[in-house]
Design goal:
By secondary structure, the protein is α/β, with parallel strands linked by helices. The protein has one domain: Vaccinia Virus protein VP39 (Rossmann fold, 3-Layer(aba) Sandwich), CATH 3.40.50.150. Helices cover 41% and strands 22% of the residues. Strands 1, 2, 3, 4, 5, 6, 7 and 8 form an eight-stranded mixed sheet that branches. α1 packs parallel to α4, α6 runs antiparallel to α10 and α8 packs across α9. The longest helix is centred in the first third of the chain and has 19 residues. It starts with 16 loop residues before the first helix and ends with a strand. Bound molecules: S-adenosylmethionine. S-adenosylmethionine binds next to α1, α2, α3 and β2.
Amino acid sequence: MAGPAPEALKGEDWAGEMGARWLASLDRFEGMIAPIGAALLARAEYHAGERVLDLGCGGGATTLAIAERVGPQGAALGLDVAPMLIERARHRASAAASSARFVCADAATAHLDTPPFDRLFSRFGSMFFDAPVPAFANLKTMLKPGARIDLAVWANPRDNLWMMEVMGVARRHVEIPPAVPRAPGPFAFEDLGYLEEVLTGAGFGSMDVTAYEGLQPIGGPGTSPVAATDFVLAAMAVGRVLDEAGADVRDAARADLIALFTDRHIEGEGVMMGAKAWLVRANV
Ligand SMILES: C[S@@+](CC[C@H](N)C(=O)[O-])C[C@H]1O[C@@H](n2cnc3c(N)ncnc32)[C@H](O)[C@@H]1O
């Protein structure tokens, strides 16, 4: 078994490597989490005229959807730390003649030169702060009194078989240390008690949560087992660890992933694996 450094999966450099990986597979990532975005948008029930901030907007798909809902009297502003994703989001907005606007900045410290927002939205863009309490307190300064936030965050990895089973395969080939609870990363807020502590500490209240559970298409709808495998290896952090372990290890893991995904493939739908997220609402 090859042994990468224990910190191999630590840290997510969104303004650099992770942002570039997300951009290179943007359609596949967005296709994979589209059902969760749709559920969060439905729960948020935006109305014409509202001003909405989209935290960690990535390539801006949800910001564009929000802009349509709030219309020309409202505002949809995407905020993201990754310059390459903001550039893509701006291109998309201009191609779609959308009123969505985008700012590239670290949400933990940014000061926006805009009027305050009625609402904050985030599909998986809120879990990466090194110090979440001051970061959310900073976001609160961008919101009106009484403003509402809607976040989608991943629930426990045990309930996210798309991650558990992929990591299980990778661990047959390379050593990957267990995730550190509460550390910045996709599962930082799996524990709702901790998220409530963070939100309360930052001055938010009335937290209300519903669970989203469903099957998620790995690499987007209709993806074949081979294409889903190549997506995981190219786009997810675990791919880098396998790359660093050398071609033999990577090829062996690739074969095992293809076998796993062939087992989970549903004709006409893609490689479908269980996913669970928390849809979280709170107020300033
Ligand atoms: C998992 S992606 C989700 C992207 C987008 N919300 C979507 O659903 O398509 C996480 C996003 O959060 C952004 N992000 C991470 N840390 C951030 C920070 N401190 N400030 C602003 N954006 C951040 C990343 O650059 C990335 O675009």
